Structure prediction request, 669 residues.
Amino acid sequence: MEKVDPALILYCLDLFGVAVFAVSGSLAAGRKRMDVFGVIVLGLTTALGGGTLRDALLDAGPVFWVENPVYLLVAVLSSLFTFVAVRVISIPWRGLLLSDALGLAVFMAIGTAKTIAVTGSASVAMVMGVMTGVAGGMIRDILSAEVPLVLRREIYATAALCGSLAYVVMHRLEVPPAASLLLAALATVTIRIAAIRWNLSLPVFQSKDNLDRDVTEPRDSIE
Amino acid sequence: MEKVDPALILYCLDLFGVAVFAVSGSLAAGRKRMDVFGVIVLGLTTALGGGTLRDALLDAGPVFWVENPVYLLVAVLSSLFTFVAVRVISIPWRGLLLSDALGLAVFMAIGTAKTIAVTGSASVAMVMGVMTGVAGGMIRDILSAEVPLVLRREIYATAALCGSLAYVVMHRLEVPPAASLLLAALATVTIRIAAIRWNLSLPVFQSKDNLDRDVTEPRDSIE
Amino acid sequence: MEKVDPALILYCLDLFGVAVFAVSGSLAAGRKRMDVFGVIVLGLTTALGGGTLRDALLDAGPVFWVENPVYLLVAVLSSLFTFVAVRVISIPWRGLLLSDALGLAVFMAIGTAKTIAVTGSASVAMVMGVMTGVAGGMIRDILSAEVPLVLRREIYATAALCGSLAYVVMHRLEVPPAASLLLAALATVTIRIAAIRWNLSLPVFQSKDNLDRDVTEPRDSIE
Prediction:
């Protein structure tokens, strides 16, 4: 059996993640009855938003889809496919849910690895890793004028955070990058699927005060 | 008759686009009863948002209004003018609608041309061209907490896409840049005005399933 | 008495501003019943959003918290502290309101000073200074799916604008940077607190027309 290049596997998984996230964005656009252009825009921003933000903030050259337009192509084709396919076939929610967990894990692993290579900082790498995984979905929700789901949903971004932490620790222990990427992504997928399966969630914000006001609101405050 | 420099015409059209988009942002702020500062912020972000995003993603030096603050000045003055003028004169909706089509076309043409000069990639140039034209209006709608209109409106961004495609094709055929810019912008203006005149629109997302759930939602999914 | 380094004071005030803005973001997350992760995300984006946008647009190296992760740490710890503390203690609204004015002033002063050092342009520095102060709060409100408060609130961003203008003028008059920073921040704090104390506000957008339509809306327009 021939040995397969790990970089190639990662690239394929990355494109798979782009496709899944584009489908997710397209379905959100469908919920708002957008036209075919709106569907492509939401598909593109969901699929490429996280990595775009990461590259813009790292300031290490142009963003990834400017360097390699294959990402653009995959995202556009996946959105168009969704637009057409939902008219004739049922949406495979369960398959999408598992694919989404995989996409989240791959984006997180790539974001963490790229950031630690550029900056060398573990805490920055963790923030960027989580951001690469979840920002696309957040932009999707903002464009649909909703509160981003990842901010109030059962363990989602937290799964990305655990995987990112795992990568950073393995990097310190000088585990080879390919193994670190694989194990970190596996950790995220496992936690995410466990959270779905047993309906796990994090503690929610609770306050003894009424919160229906803002810090910058002056109402009877300094008289 | 003296020959006029095409670059100068383009610069004037660009400033005209900035002014029109600033007016559009200011009117959106008015709809939300913002104060004079909110009006300026929405005017500025609508007028400069698309080009700002383009320059941040291209990573080819600081954004255009940091290089040339005249854009800032035009956007601020147009917003202030709107704030004052609407108290005494009627809003010329028809004129604004046509001006908006012109602004969209100019921003699209400049965005496409700049991106192809920096990256050489036709697909990236088309995404950036459309984004330069429509992102300002999208940011305006996000700041007003609404679903961006360009995502659910009759042919708007699609007009920009057609113009951008036209530019890219002419670039390949080695048409001189000035002529390409002019013809591409003309294509966008024509399509946009035809869409308004005959009320054209693109097909809307339709699904045989109920879409009121999200891909990341686990409800009865993998038990 | 030993002389204290002004740069050190500024750095401490900057971290103080980050902490206050993180608390403000965390409370907004609480209002939307987010979980602990959502609270940290809103705390982080509120605290670091303005400076992040500034650094991304200036294109002068990576953003500040990539260079110095202490900012990340302070923002995360402040958010976690808020998450825990509100369960047992009352929220000190008055103290937060005054702290917020101080944070706004420090962020504005640092943003203005950094921009004028990089670009040399007074108008760009004023835009960036105000943006550094207010963008974090705007992103917070967008992520909570609300119209940003700074766009419709009594004098807030305007206080930042006045301080920024003061800095720019002092820079031209060759006042030493440390004194300019201090006086500009003082101007912003004073104006902001006066606005709260006497309930000052700017004139609101008023139109003789009905504004419930958009510039890009074609309704009976060019027939």
About this structure: The radius of gyration of chain A is 19 Å. The CA atoms of residues 122 and 169 of chain A lie 9 Å apart. The helical segments of chain A are 6-31, 36-58, 64-67, 70-85, 93-119, 122-143, 157-172, 177-198.
